[in-house]
Amino acid sequence: KATVSVLNWSCRRGLPPCCGIAVSQLLPLILAPLLTSLVTMHAGEAEPKLLVFGAGYTGARVLMHMRHAGFQCAATVRSEASAARVQAELGWTDVEVHFISEEMTAEDRRRVLAGVTHVLSTAPPSEGGDPMVRLFRDELLVCKGTLQWIGYLSATSVYGDHEGAAVDETSELRAKGPRAVARLAAEQDWLNLDLPVRVLRLPGIYGPGRGSLSMARQGNARRIDKPNHTFSRIHVDDIVRAVAQSIRRPWVEGVVNVGDDYPCAGHEPVAEACRLLEIPPPPLIPWAEAEAGMSRMLKSFYADNKMIANKKMHEALGVRLRYPTYKEGLSAALHEELRLARLGLPYDFPARPVWCIMVDHGSSAPASTLALRDVCRHVEREVPGMTVLPASMRFSDAVPPAALEGERAELLPEVLQRLLAGDPKARVCIVPFSVTVSLATGEVVTAAQQRYPDAAIRVGRGVGAADETDSRLAEAFAHLIDGMVDPRPDKVLLVDHGSPREATNAAHARLATQLSTLVAQPVVACSMEAHRPTPTHPLLAAALADSRGVVALAKVFMLPGTHAGPGGDLDRIVADAVNARPALRVVSTPLIGLTPCGVGLLADEARRLQSLAVMQAQL
Description:
Layout: H1 2-12, H2 26-44, E1 49-53, H3 57-68, E2 72-77, H4 80-90, E3 96-99, H5 106-112, E4 118-121, H6 131-142, E5 149-155, E6 166-167, H7 178-191, E7 197-202, E8 204-206, H8 212-218, E9 223-225, E10 233-235, H9 236-248, E11 254-257, H10 267-277, E12 284-286, H11 287-292, H12 296-303, E13 307-308, H13 311-315, H14 326-342, E14 354-360, H15 366-382, E15 386-392, H16 412-422, E16 427-432, H17 439-451, E17 456-459, H18 472-484, E18 491-496, H19 502-519, E19 523-527, H20 540-545, E20 550-555, H21 569-580, E21 585-588, H22 596-618
Parallel strand pairs: 1-2, 1-4, 2-3, 4-5, 5-7, 6-13, 7-11, 8-10, 9-12, 14-15, 14-16, 16-17, 18-19, 18-20, 20-21
Helix pairs in contact: 1-2, 3-9, 8-10, 10-14, 15-22, 16-17, 18-19
């Protein structure tokens, strides 16, 4: 744990691993990449297999996600009705479904755990402890050598009442009601096993078909005003993220609170749900009046007052919430419910997702991959109902995972193979994180489509321009230039990397023409490096040598890396030119892929591809 913490600290600050670190810590830093490799080698010996005890609302979504992450998956059910539901929800994947009961033989239980490397229990507690531990204790202990991770989804009710104070994983457990006491006993049953158990404590769960939207639609929602009383909550998709991160970071031990970033009064999400559904909200009822007519169970729900602190979830597990507050979560849930309704499915159905892979050219600089991941998270929030994954065409997979917050970068062929192996009929949208679509991207997609003919793979357009009339990227550059130089620069250079492809050079020239019209002065299209520079398309060094005064440098680069990052090739070329011509001043635009406009263009393209995928599903 110290090794990873220190190395990540150093990488985040752009320092060499040894800088500012005591000599006693050098050995762990040297060993970190080796340990990462050993873990990867060990995990690669056999395909990991996840068993979920209880494939209900949350469990089914975890199974779906982890199957696409390359896991074999298995689930347990207790009835024919549950088996039918799981088969309907997950029948398009190769998920094993096992019946379990108290009458199972030891051989039956061993069969359920055969080949399992990871276990997640979502089963509720029973009187006297956890039913899964009671049933499978001996078989779980026999598998100690092969079980790499066990997760138990508990509840924050074990904290009891803290009079509105924030509670973290070290806070006193004051469980009082029978359900909270049973939940705490179940936790202890799991933690007392001599196995790698992780406990994720969850507040109220909501999502498509669950929570305030469902209650408001059915007319069961109430807005109760209990002063200074707060609730925490979590969207089901963010639970899935927390589970996946816990599996990725097995060194994070013990208990982790999994809640969103905005604990608030219970009546706030109800009002927002009604606003989204365009129905009048129920009246706000004073606590004294509401309490008089409450059931015992509902009273116990309001008896506990606390705010769930999620610092460990963010910092140790590295979870970045897709829905940090109920506002983003309810909007996304409603979007998903409407999509399911168009497909004739119930609101809480874990339908086959629409995947989006955002692909950049790739870089050996860790900052490029980390920035790509951040943009994917932003686009994911902008496009409800779509899961956005980062991928590169080359180079990035060679970056040590320790420099990438412990998570290895993946190339496009690997990500596509993983998704399509989990669901050969998957709907995958590929958004190029570039001005144009590379030939290599098309070749990878063609190979994947041939191997999985039933898959629906769509490749989007680059952010350059959909056609001659699409000037959104040029407008973004014009806006950036107007904000940098007042009143106007003496010269505008539009620089890209340089390419032998005619399509790429034509898109660059078209962008320069559009930008010239918008800024009302000539724009010179140039390249950092090129195979065939021309008088009308020179290299950047030559264009700068022929410049004077203030030059606005519009960089057609999406992400930081060895070329466009701080101290990279572009900075070096500019520094050489300014040193040679002291009167020259160069003002550069930020990387367009990291600006709100650039992210907006990517989100628009993802949204367009998602609509096409949904239309095909309806047909």
